[in-house]
Amino acid sequence: MKSYKKELHIHTKTRRALVNITPQVRASLTESGIREGLCLVNAMHITASVFINDDESGLHRDFERWLEKLAPEKPHDQYDHNGYEDNADAHLKRTVMGREVVVAITNGKLDFGTWEQIFYGEFDGMRDKRVLVKIIGE
Q1: Cα separation of 65 and 114, whole Å?
Q2: 85, 106, 120, 137: which could form a disulfide with 34 (CB 3.0–4.6 Å)?
Q3: Distance CA 107, CA 127 (A)
């Protein structure tokens, strides 16, 4: 069995953003040479997420509105965590959206369902962040 690791570097221009990282993950899979196995993709920060969904702008706006209802950014003093930083809402949003995804690899391709794409969800951005891509298989 082979193993391959790559880190993706992401820096968003806004505090919150959804970034389709499917092309970078596919490129990592090609670089790995692995044809059958599993691909793990996870956010390496506790205020960011990796998840699978549809790449549709209306849905992305729906996520933004829904997450803001669940864990509004302001007022900052509504959260016990806020003090040194003002990002408690980002921690909560990450928990809801998830840390990682695992995708099967079949015949050298990510084995997706219809419309599935891999997204990086940033909830406390405007700084350098990392995403781990770990591929194992043959």
Answers
A1: 25
A2: 137
A3: 36
Model confidence, pTM: 0.97
| 123 three-class SS | coil
- Whether the CB-CB separation of 123 and 14 falls below 8 Å is answered with no
Q: Are strands 109-110 and 100-106 parallel, antiparallel or unpaired?
A: antiparallel
Query: What length is written for the chain?
Result: 138
Q: Rounded distance, CA 69 to CA 132, Å? A: 29
Which residue in 65, 104, 70 sits closest to 88, CA to CA?
70
What's the rounded Cα separation, in Å, for the pair 114 and 8? 25
Residues 36 and 104: beta-carbon distance below 8 Å: no
d(CA 21, CA 122): 12
* Model confidence pLDDT, tens digit, residues 53-86: 999 999 999 999 999 999 999 999 999 999 989 9
